[in-house]
Structures are given as C-alpha cells and as structure tokens.
Design a protein that fits this description.
Blueprint lengths: L4 E3 L3 E4 L4 H4 L7 H5 L5 E4 L2 E4 L19 E3 L4 H4 L6 E2 L13 H11 L1 E4 L14 H20 L4 E4 L9 H9 L20 H13 L7 E3 L8 E3 L8 H5 L5 E3 L5 E5 L8 H5 L5 E3 L2 E3 H5 L3 E6 L1 E4 L6 E4 L7 H9 L12
Parallel strand pairs: 6-7, 7-8
Antiparallel strand pairs: 1-2, 2-5, 3-4, 9-14, 10-13, 11-12, 12-15, 16-17
Helix pairs in contact: 4-5, 4-7
GO molecular function: 4 iron, 4 sulfur cluster binding; metal ion binding
Pfam families: Fer4 (PF00037), Fer4_7 (PF12838)
InterPro entries: 4Fe4S_Fe-S-bd (IPR017896), 4Fe4S_Fe_S_CS (IPR017900), Fe-S_Ferredoxin (IPR050572)
Length: 344
C-alpha cells in the first residue's frame, strides 16, 4: 500500500498535494533545487525525501506552490497573522525562505510596510553558494513588483534586526513535541480543498485593500497568478477540469460550459499541458477584484447534440451530427466496405 504522507519527527511531505503526483509530466522540483542538504530525490520517478538528511530548516517551505511541505513547529500562515512586520532569522522564525511571495505581499498589504533582515544570510549553512539568499530576494522582488503594479500603498525593505534570539530553537523544538490546544489555520483546511492557505490570506488582504488599489487589472506575470482562456477548438473532453488540482476549472451543471475561477488557480499549467487540441492558453491580464472575491468566468459555451452514430452527447461545431470519435473512425476506415475494384 502506497503511503501518501512521508513524515519525519518534525517535517511532513504530503504527496497528495504535490504537483508531481497530480500530473506525471509536471516538472516542478523547486524543493529539490533549494534544499541545502540535498534531502529530496526521485525514487522510481516519484519525489521522495531522505529524513536522515533533512534538518527541518524550513528553507523549502516558501518555494512549494501547493504547501505540500509543512513543519510541526513553524507555520508561516499562522505566523503572518501575528501582526509581525519585521522578519528575521535572529528573531522568531527559522529562515526567511519559509515565506512565499504571497506571504510577503500579505504582510505588506495588511500593515503598509514589511522589513526583512537578510544581513545574516551570507555565510549561513542554509545558504550554500548564496542559493537560498538569491531565492528569497527573487520572491521579495516579485512581491514588490506586484505591489507597485497594483498601486498598493505598501513598502517592502531590507532592514537588519538587532535583538538576540538565544534559545529560540530550543524553545520551538520543545514546544513542537508538546500537545497544543491552540487551533492552527492548517486545521481549518479540508483535505479536499487544495487551494493553498497562503493564497486565501492574500485574497483576504486584497479584499480589504481593493478600494485603495489604483490598478485593478494587472499582468499575470507572477508565479502565484494564473488566468485562462479557451478557444473554439475545445472539444469539451473536460480533461482540464478533471486534472485541475484546485478546482479552478469546472463545468456548468448542464455540462455545456467550462468555467474558471482565477482566485483558485495556482498557475501549475497542468491544464495547458493536458489539453490535446491546445485550446486552453494563458490570459495575459487579470482582474484583481474578481481574483480576490473568487468570481467565476465562463470560458466557453458549447452546443450539445446527440451523435447520430453512437448516440452520446457531444460538443457540436458544424456539419454532420457526428462526435469526434465517430468522425475519426469514419475518416480512418472509410474504405473498409469498398470492393477492391472500386478502389482502383
């Protein structure tokens, strides 16, 4: 029996939330690329983790788009609700790499400012060849671009933190081993709800700030934003709906239309890759208000007819009342009942 959760003493990898489990051809390996201990590896094409190498450092948390990686003693989603506006590994967090672009934006939107202490990254054992520092700065720059483009009155800056945090790790590791009565955000998320909590927190922050945003329509050139469009080549096979990990794509109750909610999309591109006629593509802009409030949009509406051959419903375009399967059969085997003399 396959185990879908790999669990160490303090670290958990949920394979059912991993994009590589969702779709065989997905090539996400962000956790593997950033891990300072090279603890992630592939076992028979399945992403796995070596807990003998894992040090529970949290460096991989912020890069995982689906929150498939969690630590028992530190949850970045819970942390950003503590009204902290100065992030430092010398304060009360294991590493700034535990936070994603969405987290940085959320803090800045809620408080108008965010200070990040990166002064201790150089020479840190969690930052081999400055790989971790480069990744954190990429996320901070992405957050700044988003705030600038949306017109939000919020500032993100680098600023050292002076307070000493001696005994911090000892305290959090001992606390992790004790049963806590405090309800965490992660406990509120249903196993069936794959929308990352960090995206929900971002949307809630945008709702509060929406009146002050000067630009409601922004580009989708961000790692956490996705918007879709579908052209007339769509056959209504619904593979994109079936494989969407967050149910951002869904069909109408009558089955004649495909709808999309940008606020649930994590831009994994599985739908783009799985669409056989390549009719689903990325839209270049996004309505922030529709995104924040999870407003649905009908991407395509089909005329449903009954195939004259197999009697199944299909998306009718024009011509004969034949579904694509029956059409392809007729085209491929049109000569099967012809006499040899008729084919000369």
């Amino acid at each position: 029996m396959m185990e879908y959760k790999q669990k160490g003493k303090l670290f958990t990898f949920d394979l059912l939330k991993c994009l590589r489990t969702d779709y065989f051809h997905n090539d996400c390996k962000k956790c593997m690329e950033i891990c300072p201990e090279n603890a992630f590896y592939f076992d028979r094409k399945r992403l796995s983790i070596d807990f003998d190498k894992c040090t529970n450092c949290s460096v991989c948390l912020g890069v995982c788009p689906t929150e498939a990686l969690t630590l028992d003693f530190f949850d970045p989603n819970d942390y950003i609700l503590k009204n902290e506006t100065h992030l430092s590994c010398k304060k009360d967090i294991p590493c700034l790499s535990a936070f994603s672009s969405e987290h940085f934006i959320t803090i800045a939107l809620r408080h108008g400012t965010l200070s990040c202490d990166l002064s201790h990254c150089e020479g840190c054992h969690l930052n081999p060849e400055n790989k971790t520092l480069h990744s954190i700065r990429e996320r901070l720059e992405e957050a700044k671009r988003f705030l600038d483009e949306s017109g939000a009155e919020a500032v993100i800056e680098e600023k050292p933190y002076q307070e000493d945090r001696r005994g911090f790790f000892k305290a959090i590791f001992s606390a992790a081993k004790e049963t806590t009565k405090e309800e965490k955000l992660s406990s509120l998320q249903s196993d069936l709800n794959r929308v990352p909590l960090k995206l929900t927190l971002l949307k809630n922050s945008l709702k509060k700030a929406s009146k002050d945003l000067t630009n409601k329509e922004i580009s989708t050139a961000y790692s956490f934003l996705g918007n879709k469009k579908i052209d007339e080549n769509c056959t209504n096979c619904r593979d994109c709906v079936q494989f969407c990990p967050t149910n951002a794509l869904f069909t109408s109750s009558e089955g004649d239309a495909i709808w999309f909610i940008a606020g649930k999309c994590i831009d994994c591109a599985i739908c783009n890759g799985i669409c056989k006629p390549k009719s689903i593509t990325d839209a270049q802009t996004l309505d922030l208000v529709a995104f924040a409030f999870d407003r649905g949009e009908e991407l395509i509406h089909h005329q449903i007819e009954i195939c004259s051959e197999c009697k199944t419903p299909f998306a009718y375009k024009s011509g004969e009342m034949l579904c694509d399967r029956c059409k392809s059969f007729v085209d491929e085997f049109a000569d099967i009942f012809k006499l040899a003399s008729d084919m000369e």
